Each structure stands twice: as C-alpha cells, then as structure tokens.
Amino acid sequence: MDVTGMLFSEYREPTLSVNFQKVVRPSSTIRDSFTYKIEKPSDPICWKIADGKLLEVPQRNIGILFDSESYIIQWAFDLRSEDQLLLNEQLVYHWTGQNAKKGASPLPPGIDESVPVERVVQWSEPFLFFQNFVRGVFTFIGCDEDFDENACHLMLIRGEIVQEIHLYEVPCERASLRSRASFMLILPGEKSFIYWHGTQTSLEHRKNIVAVLQPEKVLRKWKHNWAGFNVTEIEQGVETEAFLSAVPGDERRNPPSERKIADFSSKLFYLNSITGTFLATEVEYSLRSANVAPFPFLQSHLYTALQPALFLLDNHTDIWLWRGQKNVINDADYTRDLASAEELAEKYVTLKHQTIDEKVALHHVFAGEEPIGFKNAFPFWHDK
C-alpha cells in the first residue's frame, strides 16, 4: 500500500457534468477546449414539492430551505470554453432535505424533458448548487409551516469560498458548537443575530462571513420581525450570558478552546478489499478548493458504507481508525482487512510524524462509541 501517495495526494479541482459538458467553478482557470465555466447566470426559480404538487416559492424566499422538505430549482446560464465558444444551458435541481421523505416530482411547466435534472441531498451538494444562489442558502430544521420565528435558531456556517458559503441549522445546544467553525445564533428574545467564532477559525474566514457575505441581510428581509435585529460578534470562551442561556448543554461536551488556528484539511480513506485487493480510497469533498476545509466529511460517509466498514481519518496530529458496525461473527474477510488496516495505520502515523515533526497519535474507535474528539472532526453528529 502506497502510504506516501495517501499522505501527499494531489489536489484536484472539482468538476461537474452539465448536459455532457465538463464544468468548473467560475473562478477556475480553463486549461483545455473541453472545459467550460459559467457566465451570466439567471436568477433561480424555485418550487416546493408538497403532496406531489409544485408550489412556486416567492422570489424573496428563494434560498430559504427546510430539511423536512424537497424543492425543484431551475437555473439558466451560459457556458464559455477556452476558445470562447458559448453554450446556452439549463439545469434543474431536485434538492432533498436530510429529513425529507424521498419521492418523485413532476417537472415544472415549460421545462423540456431533455433538460438534465440533478438530484442532490442536503450536506452533499456540489459547488454549482451554491453558486446558483446569489444571496446564499439557509436551511432550517423542520417544515416551513411549522417554523417558529420567535424561537432561537443556531446556524452552522459552512463553505470555504464566499460564493459557496451556506448556513445550516443544527440543534441549539452546546454539543453542536465546533472550535473550527463559525455559527450564527438567531436570538429573537434579545433582537440579535450573534456570530460565534470558534478559537481555531481564521480572521479571513470571519471577515468573509460578517463583512463580505452579511447573511443577516437576507434573514431581515425574510422575516419582518427580524428586520431591526442588531449584529454582534463573540468568541469561544467569552460568551455572553444570553448566548449561554440560549445554547444549553453539558460543559464536558464543549469543543476544545485551544487558541490555535487550524490550518489543515482532514483526509478520510475508505479501507476495503471489495475488489479482491486491499485498497485505501480517499473520500472526496464535493466543495473542495485550494482553501483549508475544516469539515469536509460527514458522519453518513461512515455509516452508509457497507458494514462492517473500516475508515482511516487523518485529523492532523490525531489519526483515527474507525471500525464500523460488525454484523457478521468471525468474518474471515473482515478479520483480514482489519489486520491490513491496522498495519496501514501504523505506517501512516510514522510517515505523518516524520513529515510534520509533531507528535502524532493513533486512536482506535468503534461505531457507537465515538469520543468527543472524533465527533468534533465532523460538522454535526447524531448519536446512534
């Protein structure tokens, strides 16, 4: 097994296929005549799927989504190649929230059946999805009709490129906070939008959110009662009483508050011998860029793999060998894969230590028994 190739894998710019055309980010450099990037995007049109019918979303609400619902989003744009060739394209997304019922949907009126329909699931959207929404994307827990604008809402701010930053609501509790992330707390009782920054976030990251993106502007227009809310910023470890009261929880589950900028992106490898040969396949982050990504992977990457699964998580100075839910007793293949995984992990730790000249620890972790340090390497975690 090539441990060196795992540790020093080259960055690959993400690409998408739109109607059989290779598409890159608008900010990317086109290096061949077969690659296109987007120009002149139209404002998206959005429909909510309700009981098999489509309800058009008002323009001012586009970009406001709910995780128990599904939506159809239409977008038109130009594609330009290196040779300045222009193509007029349309794309339709069928977006499904993480708690929404799965199902089919009719196409909106006027859309030709030849227009590609891309199915995307919350937390796994491609970069093009977020580039679609000029005002950003805000996903709240539950359904639109049940939304309580007088309650507190804690929003994780995710994404490394300004045009792809999005806010996803997480449970309003201390265990949801992450030292490598920024959050927005919507606190109607105090008439405030509070930005909470973890101690390991960079000043540039904070500026991109608060000064450049300014997501509170969208929320003020969405809910009239929020129009006059003020904006404040706080840092982990120096929270106000109002914040701590609104975000309760066990102090022992707080994220670590070490004041050190985390300038690394985690790596995740799926270890298996499904093909007959033991392999380590790197899991790719759909929004990867040249920037540091604090949370490129999800809990679902681990638990949706064929069990019992084996994953190696490289979280800089902590290397985790995760063992999945063992459903076969005395499985010879799994026992053999586990031995190979343990040997690989030892070699990986040795090379990582030699490379960064810091102490690197190897941890063995079992499904359902993950410690806080492991859980905090993911943007959110639901105990199984």
Automatic annotation (TrEMBL):
GO terms for biological process: actin filament severing; actin polymerization or depolymerization; barbed-end actin filament capping. Signal peptide: none annotated. One of its GO terms (cellular component) is cytoplasm. Transmembrane segments: none annotated. One of its GO terms (molecular function) is actin filament binding. It comes from the Eukaryota. SUPFAM superfamilies: Actin depolymerizing proteins. This is Gelsolin-like domain-containing protein. It comes from Dendroctonus ponderosae. The lineage of its organism: Eukaryota, Metazoa, Ecdysozoa, Arthropoda, Hexapoda.
